[in-house]
Design brief:
The protein is of the alpha/beta class. It has ten helices and 13 strands. It has three domains: about 80 residues, OB fold (Dihydrolipoamide Acetyltransferase, E2P), CATH 2.40.50.140; about 160 residues, P-loop containing nucleotide triphosphate hydrolases (Rossmann fold); about 70 residues, Orthogonal Bundle (Ribonucleotide Reductase Protein R1, domain 1). Helices cover about 35% and strands about 20% of the residues.
Amino acid sequence: MTLEDLGYNDKLEKFRIENNLKKFEVGRVISEHKERYIVKTEKGEFEAEITGNLRFSSKSREDFPAVGDWVAITIHDSDFSIIHSIFPRSSVISRQDIGKSGEIQIIATNIDYALLVQAADRDFNINRLERYLTICNSSKVSPIIVLTKIDLIDEHRTLEIVEKIKARINNVPIIAISNESQDGYDKLKAVIEKGKTYCLLGSSGVGKSTLLNNLSGKSIMRTDTISQSTNKGKHVTSHRELTLLENGGILIDNPGMREVGIADSTSGLEITFDKIIRLSQSCKFKDCTHTNEVGCSVIEAVAKGEIDRASYENYLKLGREKAHFESSVVERRKKDKEFGKMVKNYKKGIKRKK
């Protein structure tokens, strides 16, 4: 196995040379568990932890290594290595951690495509798909919608769900598969390219671990049988992990996420709901909230049936989350600035006493 098999490229090598990292081994973080990492290199896999300097200079958890990161390490023995530096990330998929205001949790880094996995049975939720899509658009990651468990519904219902998605979501590939019969896997494998990194995003029990096992051709993740009462598989993935597939694609599995808070301070929401954004330019008021204003083009389009009402309501909900996130970021930066100023004044006071 070479670094190129893991997605290494000329841009990363240029950074390595320009930052005098030639003396270190280069590897990719393939697993993370409570600040302990497994790094895969050309020499094998090594357990690793970060240097004290890297920990001290980190402003937040976002500055710590994450699954998908390229890192420079020193290998001490087969059981221990040290991460000295994290290479620049080409993309970051993150979410706002529910219950911790403003706290950002990195899901995976250096991702090319995200497989948005939803079960086609009772778990199907198009609002959640738009939520994942917003995360992808804000991260500049290309989404692919994967409908699993089509064996639990008839063909007519599958086509109905696909059409429902197309009515609200444009220009995103949709692949329907069965983990049991493996129908649709030929189409899914066809979109997986050698050297590209894919990330699985979906709730617990939608069949992500089985999907990973089927794509890899071996049993990597343990899967439990479907509950007879809920028709859902039990959640078994407990941490993120990167796997090299048979056809050369790279896949990152994730624990099922019951709640995914929007951490979007860019244009992810605008790209996901581009039709609403285009219409909003014709609103009577520039600061229109699209809730109750007279002359609102968006409200008019909803009333006429030109925009799906459920999609419109989801847009408003995600917009409120985005606004809350942005205000939390501003507040956090203000507190960091005040703390930095306090430390600076404290150090000045110490020097004066000396």
